[in-house]
Sequence to fold (546 residues):
Amino acid sequence: MSTVDAPLPTADRPMASASGVTHTVPAARGMAIRSLRNIRRLPSAFLPALLMPIVQCIAFSGTFFAITQIPGFPTDRSINWFMPLAVVMGSSFAGIGIGLTTVRDLESGFYDRLRMAPAPRHSLLLGPLLSAWARVLVVVTVVFLVGMLLGARLTSGILGLLPLYVSGLGIAVVSTGWALGLAFRFRDMRAAAIMQLTLFLSLFLTTAQAPLDVMEGWLYHVARLNPLTRVLDLARMGFLGELTWAGTWPGLLALAVLSALAMIWARTGLNRLDH
Amino acid sequence: MSVIAPVVAGTERRQSFVAQTSAMSQRAVLALWRQPAIVVPSLIFPLFFAALGASSFSRAIGLPGFPPVRSFLDFALAGTIVQGILFGSITGATALATDIENGFFDRLMASPTSRTSILLGRLAGGMVYGAFQTVFFVAVLIPFGLTIASGVPGIAVMVLGGVLTALAVGALMSAMAIRTGSSEAVQGSFPLLFIMLFFSSAFFPRETMSGVYARMADLNPVSHLIEGFRDLTIDGFTASAVARTLLISGGLAVLTMAIALRSLRKRVAAR
Fold:
């Protein structure tokens, strides 16, 4: 038995009802705990998702240090602009990490055992999602602290952290749903490249590098329509000015719609796997 | 007769070395040609970043410290070429590691083949690809407003610089492939190259950076490598631009080839 599919200790085992069917939340909790244990057992599967945004945070704010001098740029600190981007990117890659773990489980056959378990189908989506959220909390906190060390400052007080965490957790739902849907459909590592590439490109086709007012040409039109631009706006709100409802709701709406679509994508993929 | 024989033997050895290197080179080039899916990302991603930069930072060209350019693409070309070559060179080294993993490398070592030709042959694929990438990036970006102040002679020097850069990076990656014998380890070096690229002047001029980051970019050889290509694009066909492009890439190639050959000798000695 590998370390990956080791059974949970008795205390952590999900509780079964009298009919023998485990309820959604305990089953999801069990899956999430297993996934989190894998971080300790296979740190190489999680560390890139943590290190990548830190490196990105340092590299982008250092390389593009001078862009804040462009007239119309909304901050005079490049780290204030790029740290939230790193958080959103790191959070989305935490979801991708869950997708990669699921592909490994599918290839090893362990996922068939999960599907045969007397647990609701929702738990097979909720469990990975809880695990992704736990990873995101680590990513957002660490990247924020690194950002502060590099000079990032909250412009609207400690409350400005709230939209940063919300956008991190929200984008994790989107990426987890997207990654799981791909994993269920491809059932092998071919899904990995598509997961990473699509999210990477989607996140860069936004205001990732510069605000809309500063852009010119084709990217302006693409970024304006890309809903992830609104998510980035939400993440950056606490670092660029005051918290406002007008600046909040577009991001929340984008996250709600994208999350719903991603989870439907994942659920239909799981159904297809059953058939 | 006794005087001629050693001369003939030496000539035969040279011919044999050339023939072996040529055969290995053909194999490496064909491998790239037959698996376009492996190399396409190293063409697409640099262009994607160039397009992003041109749209995002078009107003940055007026910032203090930015070189005088007509468009951001003029500035971005050098970074695009070196970025493509850095990522493309992983392909050749991964193929070498795969040869080690599947035993083909051992069969080559057991055959009466020159050790250097095994390495050079494998790197030749990357060098041809480096030349192709340089021409490809220039050809694709010219219709979008790229201007090269040094003209056709400058492009020719850039192609040569691209070949030498591919040799330099390919040799370094091959040293890793020979030492580890693992294609996964070679692939795992991708983030390292990414960091080397970002902590350089690939995407923005060093003159606009500040503090520790600027000093790191100053010390990073990738910055100086890129700026040779950039001088040819912006300043024109000057002796210093040509020297910078060829001497830095050539110097790095000599250094990394020495490292790769040393790794190969160690591996042979350990057998």
User: Anything to note?
Assistant: Chain B touches chain A at residues 48, 51-60, 63-65, 191, 194-195, 198-199, 203-204, 208-210, 213, 216 (CB under 8 Å).
